[in-house]
Task: structure prediction
Amino acid sequence: MSRRGHSMRSTKVAIVGAGPSGLLLSQLLGREGIDSVVLEKESREHVQERIRAGLLEWTTVELLREAGVGARMMREGLVHEGFDVAFANGHRRIDLKGLTGKSMLVYGQNELQKDLAAARCDDAGAVLWEARDVTLEDFDTRAPRVSYTHEGTRSELRCEFLAGCDGYHGVSRSSVPRERLAQYERVYPFGWLGLLADVPPPHEELVYANHERGFALCSMRSRGRSRYYLQCPLEDTVEEWPDSRFWGELRLRLPESYARQLLTGPSLEKSIVPLRSLVTEPMQFGRLFLVGDAAHIVPPTGAKGLNLAAADVWVLSRALVEFYRKGSATLLEEYSARALSRVWKATRFSWWFTLLMHRFSADPFTQRLQSAELEYLASSDAASRTLAENYVGLSFD
Ligand code: FAD
Ligand code: DHB
Result:
């Protein structure tokens, strides 16, 4: 305590946000003996209950195992060697394993959050939940500071580096003066309505369906728990989508062979997310590093958001380890360029897959081009391989 009612702490790396990026970074640094403190504005329960992504690339799986948080994931996750693209009342399987040698793992982001939080919270004081009014200061100097309010006390955390892992709505990106960053953005004219239910999925693999009524996706969290998404107008609200309307619309958008297998049940969760692409350049400002959704957002088609966040964490953790082990700042200086090279490739893929699978307009020319591309994809190994290679994730370099 420095003054009455005001406390001060110091650490090597201050991390804002306890989403997958923040907790994984803290965990990887902890295993290398590098001290960090994570400041999260929400409660641990809230973070662990948020229903978000569900599909991990194999490089993400390996990184989580390397971080020592992979045991339950390997027991409970479902290995998927392919998925279906459905259109014109038929479907084509994309054989991920056959085309790329790689698979995906179905494991809910909220389960991952539980595993990461359990690992970090072994280390007392490593994560401060419900830390409010976080402000970032002096990140252009060698002694950045973060101020925050925790349990009613305004406190200060002194650090050597700052990692902004606080997502799209976080404080880190907005702390950077506007003229120091460029933002490249696309807003899509629709949203995804998601529904979670304790029913088995209609097919053992994921089904991405292009339909004239709009896109639909059958995903899952386990063999008995399904996650579905429907393209919907941005103005729609969850109240306008009672379960019966959701199930009826989903059935209309699936090929008959899957629609017949569809089992319905009460929703456990329903939410609408807007679709957006955003890339911030650069991703480093002095000693502040933006990581994951704080720096970039992709539309969910193709499930790249969480995997990109993990890739940023990998690049930054390597760079910090090199700095603390060898005193070299070379990898830190390369962080932005290395991360952005991968980010732009995933941004391109997510944009392309979104364009291919959704209904954008009633323009017949656009629709015929989309049908032609889907037919080409279904008939060409080269086109299927390109999709598969991007879907399983491009390799780290
Ligand atoms: P986040 O998970 O957003 O974590 C940021 C953390 O920072 C949060 O815990 C937040 O509470 C905290 N925070 C924010 N502001 C502050 C502050 N001022 N001070 C302190 N803490 C702060 N991706 C997919 O691949 N597939 C999907 O189906 C999918 N669905 C999604 C649904 C929703 C509703 C959202 C929002 C995202 C979805 N994503 C999906 C994207 C994926 O979940 C993200 O890419 C991933 O969560 C990124 O992790 P992150 O740690 O970088 O950011
Ligand atoms: C899920 C979300 C996606 O965006 C996707 O492409 C695949 C799966 C999911 O939430 O399960």
